[in-house]
Amino acid sequence: MRSNDVRSSDTRSNDVILSCRGVRKHFGGVVAVEVAEFDVERNTVTALIGPNGAGKTTLFDLITGFVDPDGGTIVFEETDITDKPAHAIARDGLVRTFQLTRILNKMTVLENMMLAARQQRGERVQNTFFRRRDIAHQEAEIKVRALALLERFSLLPLAYEYAGRLSGGQKKLLELARALMTDPTMVLLDEPMAGVNPALGEQLLRYVLELRDEGMTFLFVEHDMDIVMRISDRVVVMATGEIISDGTADDVRSDPAVLAAYLGDHAQEDIAEAEGEQP
To answer: Residue 239's closest CA among 70, 28, 31, 20?
Structure first.
């Protein structure tokens, strides 16, 4: 392990929190996802990597209910979620962020946070007339929790600013903080480092590792291989819709199938030839 590696050395559990079997999705004649077997262990950070068009985001969409699979089974926390809509899956404790943040720019940072809280009594029309005191009490509790999360993510001074004024990195932090308002047990991060400056990026990564050590599970897509190798407990590689490699960062880095997927079928020969030319 390198000196700047921030992975925990704790032994991870073999408890599977998410399981996919025979999951497939075709768009016309194009195979987007054809995953025979894929598991994520509880209390880990798992990276899902692969070249552009490998099917990573589509697999995210399938797992979180944004796209319906053509076949297969997806199980989360021992419950079949294959045919559940996205909002029901989020209620079950499985949430995601997006490569392009979906922050409500014309609302304040605090309003974005409070809107994400689950099971708000004020959402039901009949409650607004008959349970006003309960609604006010719950809203106060939600506000306290939202402010606490904003403080943890160093966003508290921006609580009453419009979210549209935040930088790209701050929006990524807000999206992660907002996801936590739903009390998830597992979070899927789609390219969390895209558009984030290095300082905020390091801050975001440390939050992820802290949350993992507190019991949360993460599955993330990321193109920055240095980030992947530094923080992942496990790395899963996709190419042309299929999983071609699965293991530790060191295992995957030296897998011939991974080199071929990223660099072409002759990658190993080219690398060997280049090494042979070195003095």
So the answer is: 31
Q: Which two tokens stand for residue 81?
A: 């979620």
Distance CA(250)–CA(63), nearest Å, equals 27
* Nearest CA-CA partner of 241 in 45, 20, 51: 51
**Residue 246 structure tokens:** 């699965």
Query: Residues 41, 16: contact at Cβ < 8 Å?
Result: yes
The amino acid that residue 265 corresponds to is D
CB of 190 closer than 8 Å to CB of 221:
yes
Sign of the dihedral defined by the CA atoms of residues 244, 247, 253, 254, in that order: negative
- List, as one string, the DSSP characters of 119-145: S-GGGSHHHHHH-HHHHHHHHHHHHHH
Count how many residues are written for the chain.
279
Q: Which residue intervals of the chain bear CATH 3.40.50.300?
A: 16-103+184-276
CA distance 79 to 40: 14
DSSP 55: S
Dihedral over alpha carbons 242, 179, 205, 223 (to 10 degrees): 30
What fold does the segment set 16-103+184-276 form as a domain?
Rossmann fold (3.40.50)
**Cα gap 82→63, rounded to integer Å:** 8
Contact in structure between 124 and 134 (CB atoms under 8 Å): no
Q: How many angstroms separate the CA atoms of 235 and 220, rounded?
A: 10
The pTM of this model reads 0.81
Q: 3-state SS of 92-108?
A: CCEEECCCCCCCCCCCE
Please give the pLDDT value at position 101. 66
CA distance 43 to 40: 9
Q: Where are the alpha helices (DSSP H) in the chain?
A: 56-63, 86-91, 109-115, 125-130, 132-152, 168-180, 198-213, 225-231, 249-253, 256-263, 267-276
Give the CA dihedral 95, 99, 100, 103, nearest 10 degrees.
30
Residues of the chain with pLDDT under 70: 1-14, 99-101, 118-135, 263-279
